[in-house]
TrEMBL record:
The gene is prmC. This is Release factor glutamine methyltransferase. It is an enzyme of class 2 (transferase). It catalyses: L-glutaminyl-[peptide chain release factor] + S-adenosyl-L-methionine = N(5)-methyl-L-glutaminyl-[peptide chain release factor] + S-adenosyl-L-homocysteine + H(+). Pfam families: MTS, PrmC_N. The lineage of its organism: Bacteria, Pseudomonadati, Pseudomonadota, Gammaproteobacteria, Oceanospirillales. InterPro entries: DNA_methylase_N6_adenine_CS, HemK-like, N5-glutamine_MTase, PrmC_N, RF_methyltr_PrmC, SAM-dependent_MTases_sf, Small_mtfrase_dom. Keywords: Methyltransferase, S-adenosyl-L-methionine, Transferase. It comes from Endozoicomonas lisbonensis.
Length: 280
């Protein structure tokens, strides 16, 4: 018989989730989801007892997490930037590392009414974060998959963000105009035979949002090539990528005509975002 007190339930769940590097946090997030409370409630009221239905629901979530299902898919949401985003198995789960891409985009000196595009938008995380910070910008997000576009539109409504529009289509081909001040993307960049695709939370995410050819650069090559005809003179291209890909991407961008090409590292000291500016 499982005790229904918060403190004992958290201990029980943490012991079960041994395969997770964040077992205690996972348990807390799942329990908060069931209770519809924030984490401070767990610490303030450790003796609080769950109802039978709440206990049953929590146990089911813990079992699913034990099997590897990502917490974000179990709760249906993920925090990103200052936003709370709905997520689904149709899209990649937004990750904290990607906030570096948003930071770099917002740091660019663009016109007050800049037009900016986010390619492979998924949940809309990057597009919505930029649009929420720069309400005068016109932001466009594109994704190849209809379900992702619908989810991004839902997230825009949920966060009351009105200066962003989403389109279905492949990379720059889906953009309705060809005069963008900046294009950003967190595209698939994992090598197709990478062993990590069959490990951890990644197992449950769509491979089309993760893998991109033998060297992981197939989609990035397409984006760089297409962006040349979509950017204004002086326009920026920013790409998130894997820790070992910066040199190759810098070469691709320079070959395509970009200048001021540089790479920014994340908080772990890994190369994460490569950017360049196009002049003609």
């Amino acid at each position: 018989m499982i005790d229904c007190r918060i403190d004992r339930l958290l201990s029980w769940a943490t012991e079960l989730l041994t395969d997770s590097e964040t077992a205690r946090l996972d348990a807390e997030v799942l329990l908060c989801h069931i209770l519809q409370k924030d984490r401070s409630f767990l610490f303030t009221w450790p003796e609080h007892e769950l109802s039978e239905q709440q206990l049953s629901d929590f146990k089911q979530l813990v079992v699913q997490r034990q099997k590897g299902t990502p917490v974000a898919y179990l709760t249906g949401e993920r925090d990103f930037w200052t936003l709370k985003l709905a997520v689904s198995p149709a899209t990649l789960i937004p990750r904290p590392d990607t906030e570096l891409l948003v930071e770099q985009a917002l740091a660019k000196e663009l016109p007050e009414n800049a037009t900016v595009a986010d390619l492979g938008t998924g949940t809309g995380a990057i597009a919505l974060a930029m649009a929420s910070e720069q309400r005068q910008w016109t932001v466009v997000g594109v994704d190849k998959f209809k379900d992702a576009v619908k989810l991004a539109e839902q997230n825009a409504r949920n966060n009351s963000i009105n200066n962003v529009t989403f389109y279905q289509g492949s990379w720059c081909e889906a953009l309705p105009d060809d005069n963008y001040h900046m294009i950003v993307s967190n595209p698939p960049y994992i090598c197709s035979d990478d062993k990590h695709l069959s490990q951890g939370d990644v197992r449950f995410e769509p491979e089309t949002a993760l893998a991109s050819g033998a060297d992981g650069l197939d989609d990035i090559r397409i984006i760089i090539q297409q962006a040349v005809s979509k950017l204004q003179n002086g326009g920026w291209l920013l790409l998130e990528h894997g820790y070992h890909q910066a040199e190759s991407i810098q070469q691709l961008m320079r070959h395509a005509g970009f200048s001021r090409v540089s790479t920014v590292q994340d908080l772990s000291g890994h190369d994460r975002v490569t950017q360049g500016q196009l002049f003609f």
